[in-house]
Amino acid sequence: YYIRKVHRYIRSGLRYLSTPLRRKPDYLIIGAQKSGTSTLFQLLTDHPDIQNPATKEIHYFDWSYHRSFLWYKSNFPINKGKITGEA
After folding, report:
1. Which residues of 39-52 are buried (b: 16+ CB within 10 A; e: fewer)?
2. Distance in angstroms (rounded) separating the CA atoms of residues 57 and 27
3. Beta strand extents in the chain (DSSP E only)
4. Distant-in-sequence contacts of 28-33, Cβ < 8 A, 24+ apart
5. pTM of the model
6. pLDDT in tens, 8-50
């Protein structure tokens, strides 16, 4: 349990340090539950020019709004010329 927790903190810290290299989201998928947002997200991320964020639902605009924008941006991939977004 503790090893996983430490690993998560280290990974989060490394993502935060590399925030200047990361992209801002190019798209947001907003919708109600059971409305097809997961299918749309999966179809978009299957495209070769789209990179996945660290997690599908970052929840910055509802549960994690007290965190900084740098934290939000740290959840997205490093800029490689591809677009990214979240659902």
Report:
1. eebeebeeeeebbb
2. 13
3. 27-28, 50-51, 83-86
4. 28/85, 28/86, 28/87, 29/85, 29/86, 29/87, 30/87, 31/87
5. 0.77
6. 878 878 888 888 888 999 999 998 888 999 999 999 989 999 9
Query: In Å, what is the CA distance from 29 to each residue of 4, 18, 25, 38, 58?
Result: 30, 25, 11, 9, 12
Question: What DSSP assignment string belongs to 60-74?
Answer: TTTTSTTS-HHHHHT
Cβ contact 19:13 at 8 Å: no
Amino acid at 46: D
> What six digits make up the tokens of 46?
């299957």
